Amino acid sequence: MASMLMNPIRSCSVSSSWAVRFGKLSFVPITKLKILIFNYFLSVQTKSKKTLARPGVKNIVLVEGVRTPFLLSGTTYADLMPHDLARAALQGLLKRTGIPKDAVDYIIYGTVIQEVKTSNVAREAALGAGFSDKIPAHTVTMACISSNQAMTSSVGLIAAGQCDAVVAGGVEFMSDVPIRHSRKMRKTMLSLNKAKTLGQRLSLIGSIRLAHLSPELPAVAEFSTAETMGHSADRLAAAFGVSRVEQDEFALRSHTLAKKAQDEGLLQDVISFKVPGRDIVSKDNGIRPSSMDQMAKLKPAFVKPHGTVTAANSSFLTDGASAVLVMSEEKALAMGYKPKAYLRDFVYVSQDPKDQLLLGPTYATPKVLERAGLSMSDIDVFEFHEAFAGQIMANLKAMDSDWFAQTYMGRKSKVGTPAMEKFNLWGGSLSLGHPFGATGCRLATTVANRLKKEGGQYGLIAACAAGGQGHAMVIEAYPQ
Amino acid sequence: MAGVRAVGVLSRLTLRRYNVFTGPSYRSFSVSPAMLARTHVNYEVKGDVAVVRINDPNSKVNTLSIQMQKEMTEVMNEVWENNAINSAVLISSKPGCFIAGADINMIQGCKTPEEVTKLSQEGQKMFEQIEKSPKPIVAAINGSCLGGGLEVGLPSAFDMMLTGRNIRADKAKKMRLVDQLVDPLGPGLKSPEERTIEYLEEVAIECAKGIANKKISLRKEKGTMQKIQDYVMSFPFVRNQIYKTVQGKVMKQSKGLYPAPLKIIECVKTGVEQGPVAGYLAESQNFGQLAKTSESAALIGLYHGQVACKKNRFGTPEREVNTLAILGAGLMGAGIAQVSVDKGVHTILKDTTVEGLARGEQQVYKGLNDKTKKKSITSFERDSILSNLTGQLEYKGFEKADMVIEAVFEDINIKHKVIKEVEAVIPPHCIFASNTSALPIKDIAAASKRPEKVIGMHYFSPVDKMQLLEIITTDKTSKDTTASAVAVGLKQGKVIIVVGDGPGFYTTRCLAPMLAEAVRLLQEGVDPKKLDALTTGFGFPVGLATLADEVGIDVAAHVAEDLGKAFGSRFGGGNVEVLKTMVDLGFKGRKSGKGCYVYQPGTKVRDVNPDIGDILEKYKLTPNPSVSSDSEVQYRLVSRFVNEAVMCLQEGILNNPLEGDIGAVFGLGFPPCLGGPFRFVDSFGADKLVNKMRQYEAVYGNHFAPCQLLLDHAKDSSKKFHK
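Output (structure tokens, whole complex):
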């Protein structure tokens, strides 16, 4: 209902919404206003598409986004801790933007597998990165869309008028994960703390059996179904009839495009990072274009022996961190920044964690487009999170199916598929890597950078996440 | 193998996940593109693989009927003759069912054991042909599947053949019954069911191709254990020991009342010792004989009865029960809650005390958690099921209840108080059901403002294990109320009989005279253990003394007294004071730790309660030797039960003999091999039974007076309860 009411207002005219903005900007120094007016005319000349700005809604901008190189876990970052990576990303952002260390109002980080020593990794990283200790920081978790949540939380804080400048980011560190003692052992150890006499202690120690010593490993499995994500992805691919060849082709595409982007120096969000005790790292190390023959040799990794998801067509375990600076447009301009893009409408969706675990993009895409009053063909840049090649292909098929839209999504018709010539052109999670908590910011920054490079106006990011959740956000290019 | 098939009929090998099974037992099929007028089995050729589809057009499940066997043989021959086909896939077109077993009606339709033997041999021939086929065959199993034709290691084969248990797919894989598992798929571009079958077929075809061009090896390396086992099994002495052990186990469990397991051992023995030809022959002959035994008829009768009692003959109720309120969180109340929440019914469990409520909620939790431990549900499913349960002490939320089941103490005054309280808070459409085991429903309904909405729902303890639900209607109960109660029962997974109102309804009324007789036997000096042995020896799954402890001595005393008042001296025999004295001393059965036996937590061994000796001494009776042999004692107990059941039919409490049989077997544990009291009268002979009763009547008086309907049947041997 609300969106139906909003649409006519939104489409009524560009000029009215701009008028509102001018009204608001009356406090801005004259020089800035001139630039704005100049920008306005420029944008009218070069863009035929309308802006998504709407009256009464604050314009929120992505000023800059950076990330550490994404590395295969167990490689150069192996001896670090999660907050070290997050700190590197924050320092990179500070360096790139030159923002004063006390000019940020808030810091939010997303992460999935938590290091128990630094469970609020946002705070530890912010302190270490030299941000003022007066800036509050919190950590969010929402599986693979954790940093998306960090970004949209920032948007929320700014939209509500509580903050003007927020740093959002994400970090994941798979080189070291918390492996726990078994529950029995933990219980015994906790009781030992309380034991008062030597006799009590000895009898507790005596109760330890071999079974107590088997450790508990974190698994990339759904708690509700106990199914690993790869297994679910394989079933999803089978349900949509995605063949092994299709998956391998898509994975190869991802690696080839990533390699090309890396070679051409397009991945400008990557910062150099002097790893303590090691060399300077400045490149992602998971990009490995192979051949179809090579990939065909691999055995299925999850569903054996007839499955189709292999190590080569899945994203790999990755270490990495990302960070973005999100601001209200006024504040950004006031501080003299040239924002990269507007962060516009976003949605979160969730569905059956068993059979539709990885279909988030299918559900989120039509919803967010509807909200923004756009159609698939309006989008110039797509950045979808590639968890598995099979998952991407299944989502593309689902988005192209009227039957699926009608039967499972309660929609009248399909939303359609993104044009592949606009889709993940600089590689994706399959090739660049997928540090769970950090991928969302990479997607948003990549969209902003690609819009700038390719001259498009609208970008769309979408991602699936464990728990059967999903996210999509529309990003609009900032007038050049 | 026929044995497996026979067992498979009643309790199928159910594979909940979907399996691709390749193996030496299913080998080859041949087909030519002529499919013409075949209705049950068809095939198409995909590449060099023949996809043979099984689909019985007349039934929800595929069974090994004559037609199916015939067409299967035809199709097989065509697959064989066609040189373009190198392998075959066998698959069912029905989602969730491969082949459910032999067609039970086909077996029933046979007049003589020889006919069944012939059928069995034809089946064997078909399976043998498949087994020896030169072209590999992959069976793509989706849903329930009989064990027939599965070649498995001897020890596990024994276990499966004898118990006919349901095996989960992952377990079947471990037992090497199946070679490969295919997980069911979720929504895709087609419905999950449709796509899963399609996917299963795709995987099976790849598998068949792989076997045909030797990419997939069928030979499995035997493990060290298997090698040792094979070596040990090569000694006849060891094998004989195993046969003996298994036979002993079977005898202990079945008391020799069920002939099939023993015959199965015999067949396996013949097959192993004298070769497959002799084995197959013995199997088919024994199968033929078994199919025509009275036990087979009884079990088939129960099967049909169970199917009939799983239908709602009162039609679809006007509204579905989405919110169920249960009063009293005791053993019964919590049990009813447990079987409701896991069916997605929002259930309110109300008690009057925090302690009572906590105990009840814990019972529901434990029931579900035990399932989690057995891995039949995940801990997550347990939690989400439990979210349907609301435990509370007040009547909050009753305004949304569609049905209230009361399971409060068996006292008419309390029931009246409760019904008035409840009627003040429930909506007009809400049904009030009473879970009473003996109080007449019309007496309870007397306090109601809307007697058409009052009904009896008699559950059996433990509710999650006992399949029966006895629904009691009064003259005033509306048809829609009955339909609704049956619908709720069916949702809870119950087998339902609907009976008329009266003291003790049907089940309790039948049990009471038998219990009275049991008390008399105790007074006559029969030890509880002996009493248990005699009743289990007759085929009751639980001995009478144990049953009394399970039901509760206080409940038994209550019922005996109430029904004694209602029915007079016919319900006499044992002295009610025996039970009452036990209750006074706190011997209320298992729940109080002492009854006929002493129960100690953590141990299954139980001794006879030494203190009841004094009570029995006090009420001692002198046994009459002419009616006190083991066999006479058994008939004294059973004849009173059966006579009362027949009288219920005579008085119209029972709607038909079928429900009477189902109620007695599923609710009271009447020997399943006898098929229920009515089938027992048919097979034993009403005249013989009457003669026995007359003999006992001469000693004990009218406790054993046969009822008119029984006398009618005794007079005219052509009269049968089951046609």
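Chain A touches chain B through 26 residues (CB under 8 Å).
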